[in-house]
Write a structure and sequence with these properties.
The chain has about 290 residues and is α+β, with helices and mostly antiparallel strands. It has helices at about 10, 55-80, 90-105, 110-130, 145-155, 155-170, 175-185, 260-270, 285-290; strands spanning about 5, 25-30, 40, 50, 85-90, 185-190, 200, 205, 225-230, 235-240, 250-260, 280. A six-stranded mixed β-sheet has the order 5-11-6-10-9-8.
Length: about 290
């Protein structure tokens, strides 16, 4: 049985609490929002599930994304640590970065949970429409099987179909990729304050400027997106007025150094926490803020 990581190990390593230990013993601190408990877990097993992806998808994620993006993040890190003001990406690297952002949302295991909830909602609607005739319109094979039960019994099959489509459809011409790459420009934030960045299990956070008492809906457009690299590096995508020219040979990404604790807490801890996230990678510098203490 193979362990497939929902959050890739090369990102989790950037949040390691014992970076000087042997790689196999490196750990992260995880805060579970539901239970309020804090656990220490090895990176090799954290945010991983047995045989979550098909072998085809797992190979693609490793070969086409994780290895290449890990090297890209290392280059960004070196530029930041060396106090450089920017990093230059080729056209290919820039497009890879945006495909990766989309992939990280689509590979998340929350989609399976959402799929099951949707199936239950659909069944309830059908029961309301057809009443006592609902069971009669089902084939004999599924007459006494609810959608929830079917989902549970066939989760691996459903999961493979869903994630194969979601991930294989993520190309440079994918509508979500194009919308993001054309309308948002990335800035790298290098955090030298006393409060580290955090990471949650849905990875990126979309922030909206919306009127009070207004719930976000599909028509609303995020103004910023926060995408973590490590506990002291992240990429902030900002909505721009003019669309990006994707024919450019290279792109220069600005590196901003932030050293004020209050600003990091406000914009990149409080501003990164999202209702959808159920767990957070934390450390002693930021745990109390995630817990709301």
């Amino acid at each position: 049985m193979a362990l497939h990581h929902i959050l890739p190990r090369f990102i989790l390593k950037g949040f390691c609490i014992n970076p000087n230990d042997d790689k196999k013993d490196q750990k992260i601190m995880i805060y579970d929002r539901g239970s309020g408990k804090v656990n220490i877990e090895k990176i090799n097993t954290a945010y991983a599930k047995e045989n979550f992806n098909s072998q085809k998808i797992e190979t693609l994620l490793c070969k086409d994304y994780e290895n290449n993006v890990a090297m890209l993040f290392q280059r960004i890190k070196k530029r930041a640590v060396d106090n450089e003001k920017d990093v230059v990406l080729s056209n290919e690297e820039y497009k890879l970065l945006f495909r990766f952002f989309t992939i990280m949302w689509r590979r998340n295991d929350i989609h399976i949970d959402n799929g099951k909830k949707m199936a239950i909602e659909i069944e309830n609607i059908l029961k309301n429409i057809f009443g006592s005739d609902y069971d009669n319109i089902k084939t004999e094979q599924y007459k006494n099987v609810s959608l929830s039960e079917y989902f549970d019994k066939n989760e691996e099959k459903i999961r493979n179909i869903l994630y194969n489509k979601l991930i294989l459809d993520t190309t440079d011409n994918d509508p979500t990729v194009l919308k993001t790459i054309k309308n948002y420009y990335p800035t790298i934030v290098y955090n030298t304050s006393n409060i580290h960045f955090i990471l949650h299990n849905t990875y990126s956070t979309l922030n909206y400027y919306i009127p009070e008492n207004h719930d976000v809906n599909f028509l609303d457009i995020p103004t910023t997106m926060i995408v973590p690299i490590s506990n002291n590096l992240c990429i902030c995508l900002m909505l721009q007025k003019d669309q990006t020219d994707l024919t450019k040979k290279e792109f220069k990404l600005k590196i901003e150094q932030w050293n004020e604790d209050e600003y990091i807490k406000q914009f990149f801890v409080d501003g990164y926490i999202t209702p959808q996230a159920t767990s957070f990678v934390v450390d002693d510098t930021n745990l109390k803020y995630v817990k709301g203490e």
